[in-house]
Amino acid sequence: MQQLLTNCSIIACDDSAPIVDGSVLIDDGRIAAVDHRVALEPLVRDRTDLHVYDLGGRWLMPGLMDMHVHLSLALPGPAQLAAQLETDAALTVRAYRNALDALHAGATFCRTVGDARHVDLELKRAINTGQLVGPRLFCAGRAVIITGGHGFPSGSTVEADGADGFRHAVRAQLRAGADVIKLCITGGIAGEHEQIRDSQATFAEMEAACEAAHNAGRRITAHAGSSKAIADGIRAGLDCIEHGYFLDEPTVELMAERGTYLVPTLSVSRAEDYMRRIGCPQWMIDKSLRAGDDHMRSFQLALSAGVRIAMGTDMLPADAYDGTLAVYREIEWMVQGGMTSVAALRAATLSAAQLCGVDDQLGSIGTGKRADLVAMLDNPLDNVRALRGIDVVIKNGTFVRDDCQRHG
User: Pairing relation of β-strands 157-159 and 143-145?
Assistant: First the structure.
């Protein structure tokens, strides 16, 4: 049965203007038509096979796409200690609960960039075959690191050394079904005995990993903090940088020239209360706060240079954080850092889809696209805090959250 979403204003998140008093016709999970309500009326008048949903004047936009998620996230402290004793079954249940919460928050698509025991890949298969309800998952499997590199205690990484070691580790993730490859090439906030600026991979290791990923038609991204490591990684073939805590002008210019994406994850360096609440150790909180100002300046440098930017939280999307949920707050931080509301919404939708190479199917509202949508009462173009009011979530044409409940 076809569905009609009506009595709504539509933000397509492409280059088109919003449609006020619009309607969207959905057929078998895809958008069949989108236009002003009056323009679609002749197509749907007197249709008895049409299920009509009156959205009560809400604003409709594509589902949010979070580009930096760890479904098995367990940060240093009590959570990481508990995770080390977790059975496979318990890990799967926890990761699935995190995925389902993300979907209900409006994150209809999550790019997972390092999860323990390939749980992200197993959940993706279960969701894609209809065994479970969840967001679309675009998975890296386990991140590739040097011996003792960033994330080694987490279980979400695989250690390797040398060009051949990195090549083999990448191929192992591809064999497991990875959609994207993730490296860690510097230290990070969550590493006690490392500095964020520490380089942790040689050029030869990065080049071998990039070649293996690209030969398989996959893109490759890297957790990275320092400008030197990032510039070397880009020259080695990286397609995307996660975090980018300490960027400089030559590096952002190189990123813009090469078309390298940045997923800034601004929230992770301005989350003292969140970290204290979940029991993170003081050394981690201190590292996070020390990086905060440089992290924001780096984001602003990248923005000014025209670097392609996609939204990612590096928290669970539905985590309670700073008075709201992490996926909404990250978008707000991007606006506070200088992005327009239009650009921030696009970073969380179409730009993210482009990063993953799925923009022909997702990321905007247009004919032929998958009907992954969210709705809220207020206009997020006026203020992105309106996203906090998301109360309708649709994935592939199916309502997975409907607090509106105004069906025709």
Answer: parallel
Could you tell me where the beta strands, DSSP code E, fall in 11-46?
19-27, 30-36
**The pTM of the whole model exceeds 0.70:** yes
- In the sheet that holds 64-69, the strands lie side by side as 64-69, 107-112, 136-139
Euclidean distance between CA atoms 62 and 118, whole angstroms: 28
Distance CA 146, CA 38 (A): 59
In degrees rounded to 5, what are phi and psi of residue 111? -95, 110
Q: Which residues pair with 159 in a beta bridge?
A: 145
Rounded distance between C-alpha atoms, residue 29 and residue 108, angstroms: 14
Binning the chain into helix, strand and coil, the percentages to the nearest 5 are 40, 25, 35
Distance CA 269, CA 252 (A): 20
Q: Give residue 285's identity as a one-letter amino acid code.
A: I
User: What is d(CA 183, CA 171) in angstroms, rounded to the nearest whole number?
Assistant: 13
Question: Of 276, 392, 358, 400, whose CA–CA distance to 5 is shortest?
Answer: 392
Per residue in 250-268, is it b (16+ CB within 10 Å) or e — as a string?
Answer: ebbebbbeeebbbbbbbbb
Give the pairing type, strands 392-395 and 373-376.
Answer: antiparallel
- Alpha-carbon span 3 to 53, nearest angstrom: 7
* Segments in 13-87 forming alpha helices (H): 37-44, 78-84
Mean pLDDT per 10-residue section of the chain, whose length is 408 residues: 94 96 97 96 84 96 98 92 92 98 98 97 98 98 98 93 98 98 98 95 98 98 98 98 98 98 98 96 97 98 98 98 98 98 98 98 98 98 98 98 71
Neighbours of 75 (CB within 10 A): 21
Q: Are strands 19-27 and 2-10 parallel, antiparallel or unpaired?
A: antiparallel
Q: How far apart are CA 205 and CA 207, in angstroms?
A: 6
Backbone angles phi, psi at 19, to 5 degrees: -100, 115
How many residues comprise the chain? 408
Angle between helices 249-258 and 282-305 (to 10 degrees): 60
